[in-house]
């Protein structure tokens, strides 16, 4: 996103205040599987939002994950058209990263820290924008719900039902995942499938009784090549056997071998086709068994008329503040926006901060993007109808 001349009456937005707020959240490390730490950040977010006059509903976590927060503006009602702003509190980084391999620091135009780009800066910006509107004595054009989930980084297994229920009440969904390619928004994402294959053979001594064994690894090798061969770049289909485990010793014909498989597709039809080809596998060796579990974890977030119309509307709304929005091409990474788009609710993603290094030890946001991005959020909240 680039900026043109801004309106003379554009409210002042404080860059340092934004930075302080983002770093306050980044300081609280929140790896997905550490529910206690995720909930500490949820406590802070709940207190901050309650300070704006919004109501906060806390959905208790389950299956070892943290709680989810549903924040609603005072004018929100079940039946009125509204906006859903979708964020997540968890990150992929282990505790201690902020003091070691990606220390929180400011260097030039970059602000570093674990989870700062994906997606604590993005999650903070709508809060800052709403609080800014309240300070100015203004409000949102439509009622808004702000949903913060605890386990997006592992596929949102416990929050998907909450996300979909809230999306069904909304006119639009805005997702605060990181911006792409210099601030561009996301209007389409690939769908994501996950599978686990377990092959069971027969163990034997690899020297004395090799002929009695049935190697699970040998069987798995055939299936790895076949599954990887389903990749079709022209169709936007990729398969990746990313994790493999097998064997108990080099001198033992391996009895068990497992593989975890990632699938990415552009549309639902391809998802169904490739899923069937992965699940419908038969052993080459009749003395070996194969068990495969899994399926599509996130449906494709397809570029359709509804999503593009929302992008065009957002572009018109923010242009009144001299801001220019652009859209990136299809991206391969999934988000919770995949769920909402698949429901037919107009969805716009990539509304977080500009930066780079998601899921790496070089994760950073660009300081120069923060004020324009905050202004964008102010305009979206006060202008989308």
From TrEMBL:
SUPFAM superfamilies named in the record: Bacterial exopeptidase dimerisation domain (SSF55031), Zn-dependent exopeptidases (SSF53187)
InterPro entries: ArgE/DapE_CS (IPR001261), Bact_exopeptidase_dim_dom (IPR036264), Pept_M20_glutamate_carboxypep (IPR017150), Peptidase_M20 (IPR002933), Peptidase_M20_dimer (IPR011650), Peptidase_M20A (IPR050072)
Annotated protein name in UniProt: Glutamate carboxypeptidase
Active-site residue numbers: 90, 152 (proton acceptor)
Annotated Peptidase M20 dimerisation domain residues: 187-279
Keyword Zinc among UniProt keywords: yes
GO terms, molecular function: carboxypeptidase activity; metal ion binding
Entries under Pfam families matching the protein: M20_dimer, Peptidase_M20
Keywords, alphabetical: Carboxypeptidase, Hydrolase, Metal-binding, Protease, Zinc
Keyword Protease in record: yes
Required cofactor(s): Zn(2+)
CDD domains: M20_CPDG2
């Amino acid at each position: 996103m680039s900026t043109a001349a801004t309106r003379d009456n554009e409210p002042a937005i404080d860059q340092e205040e934004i930075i302080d707020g983002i770093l306050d959240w980044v300081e609280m490390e929140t790896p997905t599987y550490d529910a206690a730490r995720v909930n500490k950040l949820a406590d802070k977010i709940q207190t901050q939002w309650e300070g704006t006059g919004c109501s906060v509903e806390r959905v208790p976590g389950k299956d070892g994950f943290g709680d989810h927060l549903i924040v609603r503006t005072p004018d929100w009602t079940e039946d009125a058209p509204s906006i859903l702003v979708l964020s997540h509190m968890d990150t992929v980084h282990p505790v201690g990263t902020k003091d070691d391999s990606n220390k929180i620091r400011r260097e030039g135009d970059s602000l570093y820290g674990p989870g700062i780009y994906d997606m604590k800066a993005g999650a903070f910006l709508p809060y800052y924008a709403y609080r800014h509107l309240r300070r100015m004595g203004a409000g949102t054009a439509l009622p808004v719900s702000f949903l913060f989930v605890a386990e997006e980084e592992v596929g949102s297994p416990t929050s998907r039902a909450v996300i979909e229920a809230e999306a069904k009440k909304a006119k639009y969904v805005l997702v605060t995942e990181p911006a792409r390619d210099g601030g561009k928004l996301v209007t389409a994402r690939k769908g994501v499938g996950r599978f686990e294959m377990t092959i069971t053979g027969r163990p034997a001594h690899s020297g004395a009784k090799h002929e009695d064994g049935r190697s699970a690894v040998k069987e798995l090798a055939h299936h790895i090549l076949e599954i990887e061969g389903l990749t079709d770049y022209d169709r936007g289909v990729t398969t990746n056997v990313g994790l493999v485990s097998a064997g108990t010793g080099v001198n033992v014909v391996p009895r068990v071998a497992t593989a975890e498989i990632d699938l990415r597709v552009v549309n639902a039809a391809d998802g169904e086709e490739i899923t069937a080809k992965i699940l419908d596998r038969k052993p080459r060796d009749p003395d070996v068994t194969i068990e495969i579990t899994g399926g599509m974890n996130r449906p494709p977030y397809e570029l359709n008329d509804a999503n593009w119309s929302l992008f065009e509307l957002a572009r018109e709304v923010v242009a009144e503040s001299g801001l220019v929005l652009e859209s990136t091409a299809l991206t391969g990474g999934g988000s919770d926006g995949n769920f909402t788009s698949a429901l037919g609710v107009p969805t716009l993603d990539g509304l977080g901060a500009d930066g780079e290094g998601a899921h790496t030890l070089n994760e950073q946001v660009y300081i120069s993007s923060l004020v324009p991005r905050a202004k964008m959020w102010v305009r979206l909240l006060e202008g989308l109808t």
